[in-house]
Amino acid sequence: LAEGRRSWKEAYSRDGFIIVRGFASSAEVFGMRNRMSDLATQYWHNESARANATLFTTDESQLDRQAKSSYFLGSAKEIRFFEEKNRQALNKVGHALHIHDSV
């Protein structure tokens, strides 16, 4: 196990991500993908939720924007969606997804 962790750390340092084989079964992955698709579809069709959403950025304005955003801060307790700057794609879904959704 220690050797496995070392290789994971090396892979993460090199690639910026790791693949954990066997983490979830095919059926679990299918369920998670379907559920995320449902959640994203609901979000895209909810104009009031989209009006309150925060754009996700990784530039120099990120810290200031997020520190002042009740939408971002509220994502610790709720499922929140963050769009790309062009508002044409989701960047991420955070952060309480594991708390509020059983899938």
Explain what this protein looks like in three dimensions.
By secondary structure, this protein is mainly alpha-helical. Helix content is 52%, strand content 11%. It is built from six helices and two strands. Strands 1-2 form a two-stranded antiparallel ribbon. A hairpin with a 6-residue loop joins strand 1 and strand 2. The radius of gyration is 17 Å and the shape is globular. The mean pLDDT is 82.
What's the helix and strand layout?
Elements: H1 2-15, H2 26-44, H3 47-52, H4 62-67, H5 70-74, E1 79-83, E2 90-95, H6 97-100
Antiparallel strand pairs: 1-2
Overview features:
about 100 residues; mainly alpha; two-stranded antiparallel sheet; about 50% helix
Derived from helix and strand composition plus strand pairing, the structural class reads mainly alpha
Largest sheet: 2 strands, antiparallel
Could you tell me the number of beta strands?
2
Compute the number of helices. 6
Average pLDDT number? 82
Question: Would you identify the regions where 5 or more consecutive residues have pLDDT less than 50?
Answer: none
Helix content: 40-55%
Global geometry: globular
Whole-angstrom Rg: 17 Å
Question: How would you summarize what this structure contains?
Answer:
By secondary structure, the chain is mainly α. The protein has helices spanning 2-15, 26-44, 47-52, 62-67, 70-74, 97-100; strands at 79-83, 90-95.
